[in-house]
Design a protein that fits this description.
1 helix; disordered N terminus; two-stranded antiparallel sheet; four-stranded antiparallel beta sheet
Length: about 170
């Protein structure tokens, strides 16, 4: 599946996955490999919907438009994590770096491995991302498109190849 097909599917999918939903079986899967979220993960919170595309809801036309994000994602403990609901790593530092390597924005992951940046943090051009936990660091070698959620590219068949992870 290419990115155009992926975006078409996201647009076609109802945004019910962004908030409380009575029927868990009706929740659309925001990305390949994500199992149905638990009822608790459907409640609006910092730990909601790990591994899914945050930006499908947190944009001006989305269900969570009153809580806009600049970008966001989930950091996992292993490259080939087979689930979205488990395996996220707490306390990982996520930095956005300018072309010279200076930190322009920084945040930490929560208990689900989720992180996000406010819209003001993504007003920079040609930024890359770096994740750090203790002495382990993973850094993107190409600029990131901060206008989309990290899960847009970091999924099994996305152009980044796999999830964001730190081992």
């Amino acid at each position: 599946m290419n990115l155009r097909t992926f975006f078409a599917l996201l647009v076609a999918v109802p945004l019910a996955a962004c908030g409380q939903v009575a029927d868990l079986d009706a929740v659309p899967q925001a990305k390949v490999g994500c199992e149905t979220p638990t009822e608790a993960q459907l409640n609006a919170s910092e730990t909601m919907l790990p591994g899914r595309n945050c930006m499908s809801c947190h944009v001006s036309s989305g269900q969570a438009k009153d809580e806009p994000l600049g970008t966001g994602g989930t950091v996992y403990g292993a490259r080939n994590t087979k689930t979205c609901n488990t395996g996220g790593v707490d306390g990982v530092t996520v930095d956005l770096l300018d072309p010279a390597g200076n930190v322009v924005a920084s945040t930490k992951t929560n208990a689900a491995g989720n992180f996000h940046f406010p819209p003001t943090a993504t007003n920079f051009k040609n930024v890359s991302a770096r994740v750090t936990k203790g002495s382990m660091t993973m850094k993107m070698t190409t600029p990131v498109d901060v206008s989309v959620g990290c899960a847009t590219c970091h999924w099994a068949t996305g152009n980044a190849g796999d999830r964001i992870y730190i081992q």
